[in-house]
Amino acid sequence: MTLQHFLSIDDTRTLFSQAMSTLYQKEVPQYGTLVDLVNDVNTEVLKVDVRLQDQLEQSNQLARIGHERHGAIRVGTAYELSTLRRLFAVMGMQAVGYYDLSIANVPVHSTAFRPVEGEALAQNPFRIFTSLLRLELIKNAELREQAQVILDNREIFTPLCLTLIDQFEQAGGLTPDEAKQFVNEALFTFKWHSEATVNEQTYQALRQAHPLIADVVCFRGPHINHLTPRTLDIDAVQQQMPSRGIEPKQTIEGPPRRDCPILLRQTSFMALSEQINFKESASAQGLQASVAKGIQASEVTQSAAAKGTHTARFGEVEQRGLALTPAGRSLYDDLLSQVRLNMQGVDKSDYARIYPQVLAEVFKQFPDNWNALQKQGLGYFLAQPNLERLLNKPITSSPTWQQLVDDGYVSFEPITYEDFLPVSAAGIFQSNLGNENSAKNYHAASNQQSFHEALGATVQNEFELYAALEQASILKAKQALGVA
């Protein structure tokens, strides 16, 4: 019996992320234009900002910039969510974080499937923001039950994909050929299908409840709704989009432009209006039956299945910064709440002009210096031993960690935020689903326990993951410096 050689889960994730990018560029050509723009901006930034390039090299992130992506998908049932958890596990991606988007009038709650180990992140940090529709937030009981029946009667995974997931779980891996086959089969779940599974009347009723509900319920599969390359200067990308024939959303989501970027800034181009074919209605089926009985089609007044349009898929850009500690995140959330308070009463026509000004002014209260952010415990940092300092001045005593830092034996590099911001995600969703329902208020309806039950697992805490990376780097630095 020969020992099988399995492809590493990191390499499988890379195969999948590359295949996903190729697929989406074919389906949404404007996304390819966006990727080209981001690559051009990143090249220019690194050419003029040597300090940033050194920082990315020190933190082992420079190589990953060019192929980094995140995507987003929305599913409708616990079975679909739990099966996606198993699918992503084949690629070393685990559920991290819980996001309640009902606080921003979007009837979903979500997690991010991503790698969690430092080496895996350095190789390929591909992540998928995954949302589960919350049918209980649809007030119309009849419409809610109808949506549930529609979702229960679809299968978004191919039989071979499910077989390969089982095989991975039983054998502990997939061979290179099996991994390629798995990627091809998994892509089916994320492909766009222009045929709706409902008639036009059902689609419009669900869309009236919320555009996102129609997007999740009315199609053969959930389809990837956007992909996101990482830029080093999102303001430059936003400014240059129109010159490439791309219409950007009005404002960038997240914190303002800073010398020391924090968390996540996002923008997108506006969603495409794509043609769809509705399922035949009962009246259309009656037409077919009448024709079959020899009655002329002209004698029957009911109309056949209709064509329509659906708006949901778009391209997004992100700029990632420092991962914040709970203290830093609390300060961020407080300042963002202050910004929203200050924007109350601003006329819609002035919003895009005034919002960045208010945001920048309020966030002057957030330290914009790496040293201050580290000393005040607002962000997570990787400790780097200064071996040149150690060579010139050997350590002869038993200094404390703080003394080592103060004496220049240790430096710090910011840990990149790998996760998401619920309000920012909701802002992107709303701008690309149409804002006619933005006034609907679902109120905060967090239910992490029900999400865990649907997922079939407990999501990991992102703060604990960042803290573990920081502590591991401190231990490694102490060992390199020869101190206990």
Question: Could you describe the 3D structure shown?
Answer:
By secondary structure, this protein is of the alpha+beta class. The protein has a domain of 307 residues: Uncharacterised protein PF07063, DUF1338 (2,3-Dihydroxybiphenyl 1,2-Dioxygenase, domain 1). 48% of the residues lie in helices and 13% in strands. The strands form three sheets. The chain has a seven-stranded mixed β-sheet, with helices on both faces. It has a two-stranded antiparallel ribbon with strand order 7-8. A two-stranded antiparallel ribbon has the order 10-11. Strand 2 and strand 3 form a beta hairpin. The protein is globular, with a radius of gyration of 25 Å. About 6% of the residues have low confidence.
Primary descriptors:
single chain; 484 residues; alpha+beta; 2,3-Dihydroxybiphenyl 1,2-Dioxygenase, domain 1; seven-stranded mixed β-sheet; two-stranded antiparallel sheet; 20 helices; 48% helix; globular
Write the layout of secondary structure elements.
Elements: H1 9-27, H2 29-48, H3 50-58, E1 69-75, H4 78-89, E2 94-100, E3 108-114, H5 118-123, E4 127-133, H6 141-152, H7 159-171, H8 176-190, H9 200-209, H10 211-217, E5 226-229, H11 234-240, E6 264-268, E7 273-277, H12 282-292, E8 307-311, E9 314-320, H13 326-343, H14 348-362, H15 370-375, E10 381-385, H16 387-392, H17 401-406, E11 410-414, H18 422-433, H19 448-455, H20 462-481
Parallel strand pairs: 1-4, 5-9
Antiparallel strand pairs: 1-5, 2-3, 3-4, 6-9, 7-8, 10-11
Helix pairs in contact: 1-2, 1-8, 4-19, 7-8, 9-10, 13-14
